[in-house]
Amino acid sequence: MSRKKKEEEQAPGSPAWMATFSDLMNLLLCFFVLLFSMSEIDVDKWQQVAMSFSENFSIFSGGATAIGDGFLISNGVSQLNELDDYINSTGKTAESEEFVNDLEEFEEKQLAAAEQLAEEIEESVEESQFANEIDVDFTAQYVSLTLNGALLFDSGSAELKEEAKPLMDKIGQLLGRYAQSTIEIEGHTDNVPIHNAKFADNNELSSFRALSVFNYFMETTFLDPAMIKHSGRGEYLPVADNSTPEGRAQNRRVEIKIYHSLSVGE
Q: In the 3-class helix/strand/coil scheme, how is 91-146 assigned residue by residue?
């Protein structure tokens, strides 16, 4: 009977995979050294970064000992329990609270500016003969004038009615007082599907209605077209229940938004 060959004993030293891994690390080191040698270092910025790390994390000043003494590093995960104390010690909480306070103060100023603008516009509307045909509302960003679509257009049409033009003239005069503000014209519809020779769906109908109002203002006022946007919003932003005739009538509307000077992106 033949003997089984004695299993070869493993050669002394490190495993074979470790040599490959070491070569890979050396290659990576050379690669990053090459990148570093090709870069330009701003000495002042480097010193500022080093100082920041030294002050906040206790490193760079004493090597390994400094890292061991760091506020968050010395005791490992257990230091996370003291994270709030650390943030307070660096002043970050105070800065965050100050930022939140500034943001709230700015939002209050925005709302006050919009409210003041709304009062001015509503006063002008109340003095006109169209007070019952224009709804005035406001948000922190803008004041909106809402017009019932049935007053402006026939069903399925984007052509302004002749009897609607005096109303549009009054609004044009009103907008002329705020010609330096961004103005946005939005067309809205109900959710009843439409498909005729001119419009494929409610998106097209609402877009052309907004464009029709825009074109009328361009023909009858001196408003800067660069300050006016127009868009069709279709059926997607209802203000009332589409399941009732009254709700659908409210959703068929044109909104004209006047943005005040503190509006974001104005």
A: CHHHHHHHHHHHHHHHHHHHHHHHHHHHHHHHHHHHHCCCHHHEEEEECCCEEEEE
State pTM to two decimals: 0.64
Q: Dig out the tokens for 38 from the structure.
A: 């090709």
DSSP structural state of residue 78 = G
Give residue 181's pLDDT band: very low, low, confident or very high (50, 70, 90). very high
pLDDT digits (tens, 9 = 90+) for 89-138: 666 666 677 878 888 888 899 999 999 999 999 999 999 899 999 999 99
Work out the percent of the chain whose per-residue pLDDT is above 70.
Answer: 71
- SS3 for 190-247 is CCCCCCCCCCCCHHHHHHHHHHHHHHHHHHHCCCCHHHEEEEECCCCCCCCCCCCHHH
* Rounded Cα–Cα distance for residues 120 and 266 (Å): 20
Residue 194's nearest CA partner among 204, 185, 184 is: 204
Three-state SS for 259? strand
- The Cα 187–Cα 193 span in angstroms is 16
For 4, left (φ over 0), alpha (ψ -120 to 50), or beta?
A: beta
Q: Which residues pair with 160 in a beta bridge?
A: 153
**CA atoms of 95 and 106, how far apart (whole Å):** 16
Percent of all residues in the chain with a pLDDT value above 90, rounded to a whole number: 54
Fold that domain 106-259 belongs to in CATH: 60s Ribosomal Protein L30; Chain: A; (3.30.1330)
Q: Can you tell me which residue has the tokens 């961004």? A: 182
Q: Where do the structural domains in the chain lie, given as residue ranges? A: 18-90, 106-259
Contact 256, 171 (CB under 8 A): yes
Residue length, the chain?
A: 266
What's the CA gap between 148 and 158, in Å, rounded? 13
